């Protein structure tokens, strides 16, 4: 396992981490026993970074992480997120009193005295600009309640604002082979300012696994059903903003990525890890089997420069214009 410095946070985290949205809820059926097996298998393999949020299963993902990491608080780093329990467009949701409430609730569920990386969870740019959320986070950092802070963003514009106007240690960004825009401007700026990059939705909500056909149906409580066109939240969080049927078609054109790499999953994760600006890629999982498969991405061969160019050209020529929503 390779470990990378997370910006100026002082943390060194595994290049492959795991996100915990799927084990909390909104991804169809899930099983706590399987989730815990997956978390333990990841840690046994050297994974020391997990990403969660207070709204994943109403805090259930945080509680699962508390169980799995008990006694390992100094060696296993947890990033959680806040703000989406309330109205993200209401300035009152960004008050010091409210943020402290969110923080204390997460600390209780995580059974920790300090959060390693506390992230604003996809707040509108206006709220990032017009509230005191960053001075409040600076204050919490000085108090030792959080070790560092970051922002999970939906758009490059939001990310660039954070980079140029705050002391955030990390940006969490939607990024995968079918969502390459951040490579153009956002990632170089983050590197210049020593801000870490956490790559979420690396498999485009499963599109890059190659296991779906255009007529696939998802469970009612799976966001790939209820948010496939952005009905519940930013459309980019589901299939990276691509219409599902078009995404299936495009992913089939990328099947060659798996050549000599075992599977499309391993190839897609390897591609993300190979990007210099990325500190850690955080795929989701539901069970131990998926964790094991994701871990195998660490062993597959790098993409050649010719392959990287081919993928970049494919994105700009065939994919970019189909992505919906602000990004």
UniProtKB/TrEMBL annotation:
This is Predicted oxidoreductase. One of its GO terms (molecular function) is oxidoreductase activity. SUPFAM superfamilies: NAD(P)-linked oxidoreductase (SSF51430). Residues 15-313 form the NADP-dependent oxidoreductase domain. It comes from Alkalibacterium subtropicum.
